[in-house]
Each structure stands twice: as structure tokens, then as C-alpha cells.
Write a structure and sequence with these properties.
binds alpha-D-glucopyranose; 37% helix; single chain; alpha/beta; Nucleotidyltransferase, domain 5
């Protein structure tokens, strides 16, 4: 299998400091782009970082699990070769952005695939082991996989280096999820040793909130269609209401109903059949209320004779769907703020929807302030936090006694 590669980029954050110098690798698997990252901590403990993106083809995202991990190993080998690191025993942190039962810092059993992945024979299996098996097939690769984390945890970790008040990590991208600091005394299910620990990071996996039917009361006809058209039906109910993988499809389904009711595109003579509306289209449509720009987006999809009224309607639909999404996520974040009851909390956020959408951040700030009055908070962008956070975790883990890190 050939690998399609992007160019390598420098991705050093401006103010990150950690306590262990050296070179660390990180992998970031969760979306259609797989990232390999090299973090270097120099003698002044500044963080330098190089990242390279590899597209994971659909055939691998939906194919046999072993082939997916072989592909990851192939990308790692190619990255090491390009950076003259073949044969070096580097610690690696694996950011695996899917629900897992985490039984140790370097052990995670996949609970279910989400988003654009659905490879048979991985669910119920320990993922680091599968990665290690794939790496062992490559004789010049001597990587030591020391940690596996969720992207929300990575984002919180990266957030902590940017701002010490970080206590929530949020991903608002293809999927949506958050992690937060919980008091150990509130966790009744934790059976392992945890003497001396007062707080622990919980990966909420709130994307699956509502899978038991509890959110059915608020699901619209459109939400039901979006679910039916999704890769794994009846799962990840909450995430499908607004996250980047679905927000464009929600808008599209509403537009289709408006076309059907003859409210939209009266003057379009030939309506295209196979068109998509993406999260990026939603973001671009809301940039500065530029109706000409929206008309151009619609043209690029094959709707040629649109009017400014059509563009205005599309703008309105994108706004309503975005307001609903930002409100829903704000309700959950404000509950977390109230539950944690800390003096001042920074919410570290990563993900394309947060980065590219012109209004999400503003809406969230407004809604959270209304829903959690008396709780000081700020939203900060922890860019590429997921992957870089995994590298930072690898740096921390190598400085600790690893035998104590198992549940
Ligand atoms: C999905 C995954 C979750 C991840 C989120 C954001 O909800 O289940 O683990 O954190 O997407 O990438």
C-alpha cells in the first residue's frame, strides 16, 4: 500500500515548557488525516515540533484492522527515514481518538469505532498491542510505545502547558468530546490502586450521550435522517447533533426539505443530485454575511441560478444549526464547570470546527456565561493539542516509574 503524504511542517507552540529533554514521537489517529509528530525538548526545555500528515484512505478506515495498523507503521517508518531517525529507540505517545477501556497508561481496549472508522476485528482488542505488532514487522523501527491517550486528554495536556488553569480538554472537530478533572472520591468504579491521587482525568465520551434514548425528545426529523445515513446507525447520538462530521449534512437535509417545499432555488433549472455540504461550507457561509460568497459556494455544488434570497436562506439555516450546536455543547460545558466548582477554569479546545467556524467560539462564550454564571472560565485554542499532548505524555511517562501506571 503506497502512502500519500503531506509536507512536513513546523508546529512548535510559542510558550510550552516541560521537564524532560529529548526527542519524543506522537501519533494522532482520529480523523481522515493521520499525523506523525516529532517533539524535541532542547536543553532550555523549549518545545520544538515537526508534524506530517498522511491521508488514511477509506478502504483502510473501513477495512481489516491489521491493514490499518500496518499502514500506520508504514507512515511511521517513512517519517523516521525522512528525519534520519531509523533505528533510534524513541518513546512514543499514541493519541487514539476513540472510546477505550484504559487499563494502563499504555493499554487501551477499543470499545467501538466512531466517526469515519469501522474496521472489523479491532473492537474489544488492545490497541497498543496491535500497533506494536505492526511496528515489529518493520526491522528498522525501534519505537517504544509508552502511552495511549484520547485526543481530549492530549488537548488538556497541551492546554496545561499554555495555561496552568486548564482543567477541561474539548475537541470540537469531526467528532466532539471532552475530558475534565474529577475528584477521585467521586469515582466509585475505579478498582485499581490510587493512593495519594486526589484528581484524575475522565474522558467523558459524551458523543455517545443519548444512545439510550434519553435525547430522543429533542431529535428532529433531520437528525433522524442524518443518523440513518451515518456509518454506525443508532450510536453517538449527541455528536451527530452538531459535530464537524455531521453539521454540513444537517444543513443539507434542511435545504433538501426547503427545496421540496419549493421555498428554495425556484430559479435553479437543473438541480444537481449528488452534492454534499461540509462543515467547511457552513463555516465559509457564515463569514461576514457575504451573500455573493454563499452563491459561489452553491454554484460550486451545481446550483447555478441561485438568487440572493436563496443565499440569505442558506445563511439563516447555517446560523440556526450553528447556534443549536454551540448551545448544546455549552450546556454540557457549563454542567462541568458547575460540577468541578473551581475558581477559574481554562477550557483548552482543539478541532477544525472550533478553529474554522467564525462564530462558534463567540456563541459558546455567551451561552456558557449565561448557563454557569459565577463560574470564571476562558476558552483557548490548544492547536494540534491532541497529537502534541500525546508527545508530552510520552515525555512525562518516560520520567516516571512505569510499573506504577497500571490500573
Ligand atoms: C469521538 C470519539 C472520541 C473523540 C471524539 C473527538 O467522539 O469517540 O474518543 O474524543 O470523537 O475526536
Amino acid at each position: 500500500m503506497g502512502i500519500s503524504r503531506g509536507k512536513q511542517e513546523n508546529c512548535s507552540p510559542s510558550s510550552a515548557k516541560v521537564e524532560k529533554k529529548g526527542k519524543f514521537l506522537a501519533l494522532d489517529l482520529g480523523g481522515t488525516n493521520f499525523r506523525v509528530i516529532l517533539l524535541e525538548l532542547d536543553s532550555s526545555l523549549e518545545l520544538n515540533c515537526q508534524v506530517k500528515y498522511y491521508t488514511v484512505p477509506e478502504s483502510l478506515r473501513l477495512g481489516e484492522g491489521e491493514l490499518l495498523f500496518d499502514f500506520l507503521a508504514e507512515c511511521i517508518e517513512s517519517f523516521l527515514k525522512d528525519n534520519n531517525l531509523l533505528g533510534q529507540k524513541l518513546p512514543l505517545g499514541f493519541c487514539f481518538s476513540f472510546p477505550m477501556d484504559q487499563t494502563g497508561i499504555d493499554e487501551g481496549i477499543l470499545v467501538t469505532w466512531t466517526k469515519s472508522f469501522n474496521c472489523p476485528n479491532v473492537v474489544g482488542h488492545e490497541v497498543v498491542k496491535i500497533l506494536k505488532n505492526a511496528l515489529e514487522k518493520r526491522k528498522d523501527v525501534a519505537i517504544d510505545v509508552v502511552a495511549i491517550i484520547n485526543d481530549t486528554t492530549g488537548t488538556m495536556m497541551m492546554g496545561s502547558y499554555l495555561d496552568k488553569r486548564s482543567a477541561i480538554g474539548l475537541i470540537l472537530g469531526t467528532g466532539c468530546n471532552a475530558s475534565y478533572f474529577e475528584k477521585v472520591e467521586r469515582i466509585h468504579k475505579w478498582e485499581g490502586k490510587h493512593e495519594g491521587i486526589t484528581e484524575v482525568i475522565i474522558d467523558i465520551e459524551w458523543g455517545a450521550f443519548g444512545d439510550n434514548g434519553i435525547l430522543d425528545f429533542m431529535k428532529t426529523e433531520v437528525d433522524k435522517i442524518v443518523d440513518e445515513n451515518s456509518l454506525i446507525v443508532n450510536s453517538f447520538t449527541f455528536e451527530k447533533l452538531f459535530s464537524g462530521k455531521y453539521i454540513g449534512e444537517i444543513v443539507k437535509q434542511i435545504l433538501l426539505q426547503l427545496i421540496d417545499k419549493n421555498v428554495l432555488f425556484h430559479e435553479v433549472k437543473l438541480k444537481p443530485q449528488n452534492w454534499t455540504f461540509t462543515a467547511a461550507d457552513v463555516s465559509h457561509s457564515l463569514e461576514g454575511k457575504d451573500l455573493e460568497k454563499i452563491s459561489d459556494i452553491l454554484k460550486s455544488k451545481g446550483f447555478l441560478e441561485t438568487t440572493l434570497d436563496d443565499a440569505e436562506i442558506v445563511y439563516y439555516v447555517c446560523s440556526v444549526v450553528s447556534v443549536r450546536g454551540s448551545l448544546i455543547v455549552s450546556i454540557c460545558l457549563s454542567s462541568l464547570l458547575r460540577r468541578m466548582d473551581k475558581k477559574d477554569v481554562t477550557i483548552a479546545v482543539d478541532g477544525s470546527l472550533f478553529k474554522l467556524h467564525p462564530k462558534y467560539k463567540h456563541y459558546m462564550e455567551k451561552f456558557i456565561a449565561e448557563l454557569a454564571p459565577n463560574h470564571k472560565f476562558q476558552l483557548i485554542l490548544a492547536e494540534d493539542g491532541s497529537g502534541k499532548g500525546a508527545g508530552l505524555v510520552a515525555a512525562v511517562v518516560t520520567s516516571l516509574d512505569r510499573s506504577k501506571l497500571h490500573a
